[in-house]
């Protein structure tokens, strides 16, 4: 059996794990003897390596496969780090000049996989992979359990419980924080990284009272969407400083207490299909032959065909009626939801 044939099989296996947002599969094969093959390279985890070896051994039972030289990125125990700035970019490669894939908020816990120069390759809790500046991550995990979530697009964190106090930092919607003190209409919050300051208490939602039923979650989304009107479009953005279509949808669901995948095609694959009549919170998907993926855009229904979305063509978060916009109408690919169609989750 030739090396090329084994390499071809490896390429077929690799195709199943080709999504670099969730997988790392960088294996190559050398065949020093007819009955022996040495694998080298890098894979995300032990399970992926074992699955690949099983497929190779099934295809080539007469060959012994040696995988000692393969690097496995995920270790046990995992090295966990927390984001110690208010916001940080997750890039495709270890450079600010490369694609911004998403952004993470203060306190986000990630798993360290490898290092290159001043950058760390990390895995988020939902499996999303990318590179973050190492200086923005700390092994000192939060000592306090978060109690609240920031519900306003952007909060100024002040040195004291008064609007005229000095600005210490800025905190973005979706950030989980710990309240350590209160004074009138103000709450003192603690962030990972040593930041501590005061924000309006009304802008924080207790984590133990997030919406629980589908009806409550739809109502919350309906009440919050207007806060984001005009936020600029930014590829890979996840905050009020700039947000893309799927980042906007993911953030609204987060505010409603529901965790969903990061990108539009992932959301399309994971949700529950729905048909007319569409309800607030249902998701609309769009795609075209010229798109970077089959599903390349997503918006959130405001009821019927009305939707709010972060639009690259309009450079921001705005409302549209799908039936009134030709490009949306012709590229519509379907709808789904991550909420129950009944009144309770």
Gist of the model:
The protein has 345 residues and is an alpha+beta fold. The chain has helices spanning 3-16, 46-59, 214-224, 245-255, 264-270, 326-331, and strands at 25-33, 36-43, 64-72, 80-83, 87-91, 100-105, 109-116, 119-124, 129-133, 137-138, 148-150, 154-158, 167-172, 176-183, 186-190, 196-200, 204-206, 238-239, 242-243, 272-273, 283-286, 297-303, 306-311, 316-321, 332-337. It has a six-stranded antiparallel sheet with strand order 20-25-21-22-23-24.
Provide a descriptive summary of the structure in words.
The chain is α+β, with helices and mostly antiparallel strands and 345 residues long. It contains 6 helices and 25 strands. It has a 6-stranded antiparallel sheet with strand order 20-25-21-22-23-24. Helix 1 crosses helix 2 (46-59). The chain is globular. It starts with a helix and ends in an 8-residue tail after the last strand. The mean pLDDT is 95.
Main features:
345 residues, alpha+beta, six-stranded antiparallel sheet, five-stranded antiparallel sheet, 6 helices, 38% strand
The strand count comes to 25
How would a crystallographer describe the biggest sheet?
Answer: 6 strands, antiparallel
The shape, in one word, is globular
Class based on secondary structure composition and strand pairing: alpha+beta
Strand content: 35-45%
Helix content: 10-25%
Strand order of the largest sheet: 20-25-21-22-23-24
Mean pLDDT metric? 95
Low-confidence spans: none
- The number of helices is 6
Query: Could you tell me the radius of gyration in angstroms?
Result: 23 Å
Alpha carbon gap, first and last residue: 55 Å
């Amino acid at each position: 059996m030739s090396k090329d044939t084994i390499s071809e099989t490896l390429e077929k296996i690799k195709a199943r794990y080709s999504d670099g947002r969730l997988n790392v599969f960088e294996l190559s094969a050398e065949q020093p003897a007819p009955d022996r093959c040495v694998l080298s390279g890098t894979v995300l985890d032990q399970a992926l390596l074992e699955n690949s070896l099983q497929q190779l051994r099934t295809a080539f039972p007469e060959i012994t496969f040696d995988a000692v030289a393969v690097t496995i990125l995920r270790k046990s125990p995992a090295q966990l780090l927390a984001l110690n700035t208010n916001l940080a970019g997750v890039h495709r490669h270890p450079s600010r000049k490369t694609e911004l894939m998403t952004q993470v908020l203060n306190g986000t816990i990630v798993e360290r996989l490898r290092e290159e120069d001043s950058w760390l390759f990390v895995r988020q809790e939902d499996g999303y992979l990318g590179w973050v500046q190492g200086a923005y991550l700390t092994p000192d995990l939060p000592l306090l359990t978060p109690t609240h979530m920031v519900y306003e697009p952007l909060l100024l964190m002040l040195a004291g419980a008064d609007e005229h106090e000095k600005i210490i930092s800025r905190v973005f919607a979706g950030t989980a924080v710990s309240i350590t003190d209160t004074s009138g209409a103000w709450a003192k919050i603690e962030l990972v990284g040593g930041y501590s300051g005061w924000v309006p208490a009304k802008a924080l939602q207790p984590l133990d009272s997030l919406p629980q039923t589908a009806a409550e979650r739809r109502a919350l989304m309906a009440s919050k969407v207007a806060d984001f009107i005009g936020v600029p479009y930014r590829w890979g953005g996840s905050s009020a400083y700039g947000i893309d279509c799927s980042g906007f949808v993911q953030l609204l669901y987060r505010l409603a207490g529901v965790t969903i995948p990061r990108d539009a095609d992932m959301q399309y694959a994971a949700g529950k299909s729905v048909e007319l009549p569409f309800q607030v919170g249902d998701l609309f998907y769009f795609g075209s032959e010229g798109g970077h993926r089959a599903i390349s855009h997503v918006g959130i229904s405001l009821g019927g065909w009305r939707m709010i979305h972060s639009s690259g063509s309009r450079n921001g978060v705005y409302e549209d009626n799908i039936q009134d916009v030709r490009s949306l109408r012709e590229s519509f690919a379907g709808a789904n939801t991550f909420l129950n169609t009944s009144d309770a989750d």
